[in-house]
Amino acid sequence: MGSVMQVYLADLARLKAAVGSKDAALLDAITATWPNETTDGSEDGTSGGRLSSRAALRAVIDGGPFEQGQSLRYLDALESICAHIGEHIDDFTFHHGALDELDEEFDVLEGLSIEDFLYEWWDLFPDLTGGGGGYWTKEKCAEALDEWASDDPEDFDELNRTALDELECSDLWLVASKRAGKDVVTFWG
Q: Which helix (H) or strand (E) holds 132?
C-alpha cells in the first residue's frame, strides 16, 4: 500500500514562523474557510479521543502544548497553514519500500533526495508516525536546476519552455519553485 504526498509551493520561513506565532488572525483566516461543522463534532476540543481540527491548528499556532497521540492532527494543521500561505501543485503516490528506486527516479536532482520530503516534520510533534513531510528550499531547487542545465543544456532549455502541466513531478516541482521563487513543501500520511 502506498502513501500520497501533497506537494506545495510556499515560503518555508513563513510556514516555520507560523508555528508558535500565536497569530490569532492566521487561525481565524484559515478556519474561516472551513465548513461550520467539524468532522469530529467538537469545535474547540477533543471528541472521542480525537483532537478537533481547530484545536490542533490552535496548538500549532500557539506552539503547544502538544498532546501525545495527536501528532497526525498537528501535521494536518501544519498542512492547513501551508495550504493557506502557499499553493498546492501536485499529489504524488509513493511506496516506502521503494524509496531507493524513487531516489533513482529523482537522480537528476543532485544534492536533493526524496527522503528530504519524508521526515523533516518529525521533530516538531511528539510521537509522529504514519505521516510526515519535508521540503526542498528554493535555493536547493535552483542549484539542482543549474546543475542540470550545465550537464544537459538542450534538455534544460526544453524544460524551461515546457508548460507546467506537461512536466514530470520532480521537474515540475523544481521549475515551479524557480518560477515562483518559493520552496517546495510536502506532507504525507
A: strand 132-136
The DSSP 8-state label assigned to residue 32 in this structure reads T
- What does the pLDDT look like over 150-168, one tens digit per residue? 766 565 555 555 544 444 5
Distance between CA atoms of 170 and 188, rounded to whole angstroms?
Answer: 16
Indicate if the alpha-carbon torsion angle 160, 166, 171, 176 is positive or negative. positive
| Backbone Cα Rg of the chain | 18
d(Cα 114, Cα 136) in Å, to the nearest integer?
Answer: 9
Q: 125, 126, 106: which is closest to 116 by C-alpha? A: 106
Cα 68 from Cα 163, distance rounded (Å) = 44
CB 40, CB 47: distance < 8 Å: yes
Model confidence at 41: pLDDT above 90: no
Q: What type of residue sits at position 55?
A: A
